[in-house]
Amino acid sequence: MPRLLVRRPSPRLAEGELTHLDRVPVDADLALAQWRGYVEAFRTRGWEIVEIDPADDQPDGVFVEDAVVMFGDLAVLCRAGAVSRRGEAESVRAGVTASGIALEEIAEPGTLDGGDVLKVGRTVYVGASSRTNAEGIAQLRALLEPRGWEVHEIPVTKVLHLKSGVTALPDGTVVGFEPLVDDPSLFPAFAGVPEEHGTAVVVLDDDTVLMSADAPATAEEHRFRGLDVVTVDVSEFEKLEGCVTCLSVRVRD
Ligand code: CIR
């Protein structure tokens, strides 16, 4: 059974980091309700939910994707590019270890945010962004290449993380909103989507993707491709430069 690592949003979510967006009011109660809806979308499709301990003093703690990345049965614990987010790692380490998952980690002076890691089959695209540095990418490469993964560095200047601009469909097609993508030609198969919040998809199974409710035209395009599309409202997280991918870590057995 696939497992989903999540952490409930902090009441201080509104204080989270912002890089490309202006700060606007965030409704913490609505955020919690949206988070519950997100988790339910997985639970009702057979995913086991694993909750990492709350970290209510960490405004961005809900974005667990940035703290740890799965490569098959190996977890890589990240070292956050934003100093304000470094306190998230210890509780994530504890949650991952308690789940019996083997763990490696990125060490100082390396920085890596999981939002900069896009896996397509055994290919790993890593965003060189304001959060992920060359040393972090080198450390990740040293961990992964001996294990049979191919690692490609991708420039990211227009959005926070690589996966704020591109994600991948079940068939490996990389989808992205072109104004936010530095160089679409770096991906062997790329398809543009018509909406900014349509860039992020989570693959639920070979025929189904989960995406934001704020990208209806993109959802229609995916349905036209033959995919089932599940939508969730994640507006309060989008205000903090989050998206559907960053609210969980997917552990597929
Ligand atoms: C941050 O700036 O770190 C958070 N406010 C948003 C993180 C979103 N994470 C992601 O896209 N993987």
TrEMBL record:
Superkingdom assignment: Bacteria
Residue spans crossing the bilayer: none
Keywords: Hydrolase
Family recorded in the similarity comment: Belongs to the DDAH family.
Family matches, as NCBIfam families: DiMthArgaseDdahStm
PANTHER family: DIMETHYLARGININASE, DIMETHYLARGININE DIMETHYLAMINOHYDROLASE
Name of the protein in question: N(G),N(G)-dimethylarginine dimethylaminohydrolase
